[in-house]
Amino acid sequence: MKNRRTIPEDRLRQRVREYAARMRDGDDPVEFWAAFCGEVLAGAAEPGPADRPEADADCPPDPKTSRLHTLFLSLRTPVLLLNADFEVEVMNPAAVELTGARDLEAWSRGDHAPVPLAELAPWLEAALEAEGLSAAGGDACRLDVPVSQRYGERHFNVAVSLTADFSDRHDGYAVVLDDITARVEGERELARERNRVAHYLDVVGSMVFTLDAAGKVDMVNRTACRVLGYAQEELLDRDWVDVMVPASHRDEIRDCLYLVLSGQVEEEDERTFQVTTREGFKRMVQWQGQVLTTEGGLPVGMLLSGTDITEQRAIEEALAEKELWLRSTFVALGEAVLILTPQMSILDANPAAETMFQMAQADLQGKPVADLHVSAGHYDDFLARSTAAFEAGEQAMFELPLKRRKGEIFPADQSVSLIKGDDGSTLGVVNVIRDISDRKHAEAELKRSEEKFRRIFETIEEGYMVTDLEGTVLMVNPATCRLLQYDESELVGRNIDNLYKVAGERQTFREALQARGAIRGLQMTARRKDGTPIVIEANAHQVLNNQDEPVAMEGTFRDITRRIEAEKVLRESEKQYRAFFENNHAIMLLTDPKSERIIDANPAAGDFYGYPLEVMRTMNLSQIIALDRDEMFSEMRRSMDEGRTYFILRHRLASGEIRDVEVYSGPIMVQGAQRLYSVIHDVTKRIELEQEMKLLATTDALTGASNRHQFFTLGGVEVQRAKRYDLPLTVIMLDIDYFKSINDTYGHAAGDQVLKALSRAVSKLLRAPDVFGRLGGEEFAAILPQTGIEEGAEVAERLRSTLAGLAVAVGDDTVTFTVSMGVTQVRAGDRTVEEVLNRADEALYRAKRMGRNRVVRD
């Protein structure tokens, strides 16, 4: 070992003051010890007696140097002194223990020969070389070095400083190793804990944010990013209120956060408000907040936890709205509704039921519903039909007469359905009753009116057929020809057996009809003219003569092939359904029948409504249906009355345009949940055409007034209503005086102008419920409902005066004219509108004979 120089006391004190000043300035203590020990152990001072061998025996050791040596030996931090050849010259005991060297006493006294660092601590030598330190030279540095030992891994913070001789020339390195194993393990444990917390926050179902004191996002979990559509980096270090909260609520929420963070108000346990997703959608979120503080209690931020309750809130609002609507509908419904207990006693009744049965609510409540039936046999029939439908999981619908309070019997159309609890138990029964007296009367009138029958016969969409008992076709309607692709002449006189695809179905049909007298909803397979099979749904009954003997069979049917095929497709695998659903050109929707939420829509629906599919899947049917609840209920009732399998509705497109559509709907099970599958057809043009055709069929082409057929149709309804409810009704007949002379003098074109002017003037003076029509030529008539003869005569006089003052411009001429009128009213003995018109006509001709331009009452 080389002889070392000692440091004079004044130089030592100066170095101590310098290192103390560096410690006060914040220098690292490990670097301090490395530098200080390096200088002390290197003996970087003037040459002293220690350099002279002969002085060893004569000069006692310097006490200050001994104290420093003692300090060096007592250090618990390993310290090594390397010479310029990267050999270890001096180690303190802590370093000897670390390196596993022998001869502790020799190392402590400094009597040990230099040993290459690679032999004592190869791990340290490798780490220093990686930092560019070796026998070839290098600068001071600092690095962390892990060491694998028998009892585990240790970590050292290694500080290396250069040592110099008295002339400040570099002659080695001082290496100080600070054991930081505990700190590294603590940091690792802290990292593991942070990872566990981060993992928990990522898998928790709530959205979690931490905000700093300025309201900026410090941390956000994956749930929040997924729900709100943001990437984590898009939210970090951004103002939470500006990003999340809609503009209209930002000031309110920001003030709230400020008050909580500043301690001016207590922390709110819970607060619900809307936030905005990245795509701009509003989500209702229930938030909980917790102020984050330092150990001293100073607020440094806030922890926010939010639960998305958008769907829950929408469901609650929809349920509340539905409950209110149902109650309002129950009270305002025109049909009688009885709520029955499972024992068939009346629990509740709406006002329509009170009116129908002529009993107050108090009289109906608690009353057995059997008391409303005509007889015990009728009540047993009611129970049997209801029970059979309930067991089949269906709603019972049938006609059964009932009686009013005073014993009056009336025909009733009844619908009976169960009220089920969430556990499937029966809570009660709903009995909807409609008085069909008017309908029965109308049916009787229909049988006596060939014209009405023919119109219905030719225009209904369902096929209609009459055969004799042997199956020979006697009559078919146009719809039958269209469905089976035959001409009428090819069907009439032909045996119906040829139309069955399956031979045994005809025999089954006849046996069922003979046994029950009528059948409904029977499905069979028919064959078209070209041999194509179609599935039909048939309703049929026997035609009886006056002796109640069957003489023929008649019935209706409709083609349900497409519906059957659709049902088969929907029962296929999800892949097949999806391909059919998405590639079909027809507009298709899949909805939740309870919430009316759109579960799925095919591309054709997106193209038709003008919404992206992902938007449609978040919408509700109420956003596209342009009808209110009352209009929807009326259409459902019309569909049921008409036996239709579809609804005619009005849908609103994204552009705001309203379109008429036909909606064919049916239930379907999708992944164990019941859904409603709907196919939608745009029929706007067809509806417009039908309305135009109806207008042409009911309106006089020249004057715009009702034509003769429409006038008698509407007039007959008003006369019957007036008689049924004992209401007054006045009829006016009017005829233009000397109309032939107008045509002869000015031409028929002038006559047409006069007729038009008369129609316009009369229409302006009459009320909306009044019926005005042209009966032929220059003869017109008006029906004034709920108008007595005196008031009717006054109306006629106003009409006469107004028409007498008209001046019709015809070319360069001006044509004036007068009218004569006959007025009468409905009397007790009148049976038809024709009888009333005949009296008005007689009064009209009396006015003509009395000089014209006057009103005569009958």
Sum this structure up briefly.
This protein is of the alpha+beta class and 858 residues long. It is built from 32 helices and 35 strands. Helix 1 (9-24) runs antiparallel to helix 2 and helix 29 crosses helix 30 (748-765).
Stretches where pLDDT is under 50 for at least 5 consecutive residues are 1-9, 42-57
Determine the mean pLDDT: 83
* Rg of Cα set: 51 Å
CATH architecture of the largest domain, please? 2-Layer Sandwich
Largest sheet: 6 strands, antiparallel
Query: Which strand order spans the largest sheet, edge to edge or round the barrel?
Result: 3-2-1-6-5-4
Helix content: 40-55%
Number of helices: 32
Q: Which quaternary structure do these chains form?
A: single chain
The CATH topology of the largest domain turns out to be Beta-Lactamase
Instruction: Give the CA-CA distance, first to last residue.
Output: 153 Å
CATH domain class of the largest domain: Alpha Beta
How big a fraction of the residues is strand? 25-35%
- Which structural class should the secondary elements be placed in? alpha+beta
Protein name: PAS domain S-box protein
Domain GGDEF: 727-858
Domain PAC: 269-321, 396-448, 520-572
Pfam families: GGDEF, PAS, PAS_4, PAS_8, PAS_9
Describe the overall structure.
This protein has 858 residues and is an alpha+beta fold. It has 6 domains: 9-182, Beta-Lactamase (2-Layer Sandwich); 204-308, Beta-Lactamase (2-Layer Sandwich); 314-439, PAS domain (Beta-Lactamase, 2-Layer Sandwich); 449-559, Beta-Lactamase; 564-688, Beta-Lactamase, CATH 3.30.450; 699-857, Reverse transcriptase/Diguanylate cyclase domain (Alpha-Beta Plaits, 2-Layer Sandwich). The protein is 41% helix and 28% strand. It has 32 helices and 35 strands. A 6-stranded antiparallel β-sheet has the order 3-2-1-6-5-4, sandwiched between helices. Helix 1 runs antiparallel to helix 2, helix 29 (739-746) packs across helix 30 and helix 30 (748-765) crosses helix 31 (789-804). The radius of gyration is 51 Å and the shape is elongated. The model is unreliable at 1-9 and 42-57 (pLDDT under 50).
